[in-house]
Automatic annotation (TrEMBL):
<dbReference type="Pfam" id="PF12922">
    <property type="entry name" value="Cnd1_N"/>
</dbReference>
<dbReference type="InterPro" id="IPR024324">
    <property type="entry name" value="Condensin_cplx_su1_N"/>
</dbReference>
<protein>
    <recommendedName>
        <fullName>Condensin complex subunit 1 N-terminal domain-containing protein</fullName>
    </recommendedName>
</protein>
<feature type="domain" description="Condensin complex subunit 1 N-terminal">
    <location>
        <begin position="72"/>
        <end position="204"/>
    </location>
</feature>
Amino acid sequence: MMEFVIPVTRNDLLSSTISSYSVNELVSVRNLPSSVQSCQKYLVREGHRAILKCFDILFSVLQEWKSVDANTKEDAWRVVLKGCEASVRELASVIKPVDPNSSSNRSDLLERRNAVKMHAYLLCQFIEVIENDSVAEASAAAIIKVGRGRGKAAASAAKVRRQDSDISLDWPTECSNALTVLDQLCKLDIRQFWDPPVVEEDFAKKKGEDLQFERRLGK
């Protein structure tokens, strides 16, 4: 497996390179519901490392977000959040003080740090798209309210768009839980999964952006 590098843009992961991980194939909208369900099973069996098999599927949900049904979006969100929670639990149990003289299996280190980065990246991406939907739905609700008695056609169109994208998550609670998990992940001493034990700049920067985002939401 190649190194997963935090992309500048999501589409960067669709460009094949010889030096870093790229998405092998996007899953079709038609097959996403069953594929996401398979991720739920992988998560139960394999915990933290299930993401190594499921990343492309969950990434496909993001790429096809506007076309994916609400149930699949919710299932994918739960897989991502529970996967990150499992990552925090499992890593907390194996992390030890960094010993410069210790030797570790390079393949094992690569899998662990890839899983950490994949979990953090997907959770941040899902938070962003769901937050954007939440804002859009609030705007649509305002249009419907204003449209009562005038501009009914526009209000009706906004209502249809809102119904198409509605998910039943208690988003403020879900978002708070996700940010708590991100905070816990950021506080883990994961340096030992890098060789040498220095976390790469892009991931460190991403962690900083996550914490800034958390503060903006008033957590």
